[in-house]
Amino acid sequence: MDSSELPGVLAFLRAAERLKGTTRTGFTSTGQQESVAEHTWRLCLMALVLRQAFPEIDFAKLVKICIIHDLGEAVHGDVSAPEQARRAAAGATAGKAEQERRDLLELLTPLPPAVRDEITALWDEYEAAQSLEAKLAKGLDKLETIMQHNQGLNPSDFDYRFNLGYGRQHTADIPIIAQLRAMLDEETEARARKADADDAHP
To answer: pTM to 2 decimals?
Structure first.
């Protein structure tokens, strides 16, 4: 990398810092609203601790995909899965992925072309979910979201049962991911039942 490209690298990194303050719909176990950066961190940690179960994967590529999978959200933020479903039902034509890709390209503008192209290609691969690394990243992403919802100190009206169908197509085909999903689904149902009981006896 040429030294003349370093100002652009710094500009990109400063812009990407917004993910530290870009919130998701989940809450931490202490009741703090989760940021996209926090979600990404634990997604990468999941990839690391499950690595030995997938000796055939390119681990560096998997982690790269995990790191950049939500990068475009630094521009216009996160759109939750329930909100995506509501927008689709209302006839919205622009999908989350389409907007997020435009945002990603805007965010990547200051970077050297080779770096910009690498990140864009990794993001496209994640969205297509064709390679083993992309499929695994997709599955882990869904599991991390569900895990956080089950673990979080959420508002009283939190819809736990939405997660029983959330992302199922990305967590069904890889055996260890499916096993983890089954465990998390049990937790989800338990949280939903507790929430129902709390509502019935405030």
So the answer is: 0.92
